[in-house]
Specification:
Helices cover 47% and strands 20% of the residues. It is of the alpha/beta class. Strands 3-2-1-4-5-7-6 form a seven-stranded mixed β-sheet, sandwiched between helices. Helix 4 links the parallel strand 2 and strand 3. Helix 1 runs antiparallel to helix 3, helix 2 runs parallel beside helix 3 and helix 5 runs parallel beside helix 6. The longest helix has 35 residues. It is globular and about 65 Å long. The structure holds S-adenosylmethionine. S-adenosylmethionine (SAM) binds next to helix 3, strand 2 and helix 5.
């Protein structure tokens, strides 16, 4: 088949118009999320992660191109927004679980305001039950609910976590509740490699799954 010059030029125009529309859509979303995060930077007071810890989660997801996230403990959605923003770039989605109805509703509003609703499946549920029931598979998990259940959450998610994926947990520096037992447990597993992120004041443990 022979293509004429005007025909090729037309294809070029359509393609470049499409690319521009895509990139301007992306940057609109980036601007919206950044504005939201800056505007609310000092407003988070429902046990939410600080801004810098949100950035750690975001970077981790982008670095590993994770696409299927689970968050345990939404609260009002600060960490959810960082995870969902990363998901908007990798083409993924995050399932997040919260037991408190007021916080769950507030999170939905915040996620909507940030423009990230399509990347979030927010569940109002008891994670003790729901985490067992969710099908997965997941490649990224952020555990930030009741600390004395951390080990059990890990055991429930482990079969659904892909090799190469990682399980992260918040507030591991203070050793409160079941955090010490959790760290001892996860560090004892030969198929996981666990480190503590150095930039986080409260401590985020990052456990990479090396094999089944
Ligand atoms: C530390 S806060 C989460 C903060 C959130 N990740 C953020 O940075 O915005 C812990 C949340 O876990 C929720 N939570 C505690 N036990 C839970 C359970 N069994 N199931 C679901 N959520 C639970 C609490 O209601 C609380 O909102």
């Amino acid at each position: 088949m022979k293509f004429t010059k005007p025909f090729l030029f037309l294809i070029f125009l359509i393609y470049s118009g499409f690319s521009c529309a895509q990139s301007s859509k992306d940057s609109d979303l980036d601007r919206r999320v950044k504005n939201f995060l800056e505007k609310h930077r000092s407003d988070w007071n429902d046990m939410n992660v600080p801004y810098t810890d949100g950035q750690v989660l975001y970077d981790l997801i982008l670095k590993n191109e994770y696409t299927s996230a689970l968050e345990i403990g939404t609260s009002t959605g600060h960490s959810t927004i960082w995870i969902a923003w990363a998901m908007s770039k990798t083409g993924g989605k995050v399932v997040t679980v919260e037991i408190d109805e007021g916080r769950h509703k507030e999170a939905l509003k915040n996620i909507e305001e940030a423009g990230l609703s399509e990347y979030v499946d927010a569940r109002l549920a008891d994670a003790h039950q729901l985490v067992k029931e969710l099908g997965g598979p997941f490649d990224f998990v952020f555990s930030d609910a009741d600390k004395d259940w951390y080990t059990q959450y890990f055991k429930d998610v482990d079969p659904k976590l892909e090799t190469g994926g990682c399980f992260t947990a918040h507030n591991v520096r203070n050793g409160f509740g079941g955090v010490k037992d959790y760290l001892d447990y996860v560090k004892s597993l030969p198929n996981y490699e666990t480190t503590i992120d150095g930039s986080s004041r409260s401590g985020i443990s990052i456990s990479y799954k090396k094999s089944k």
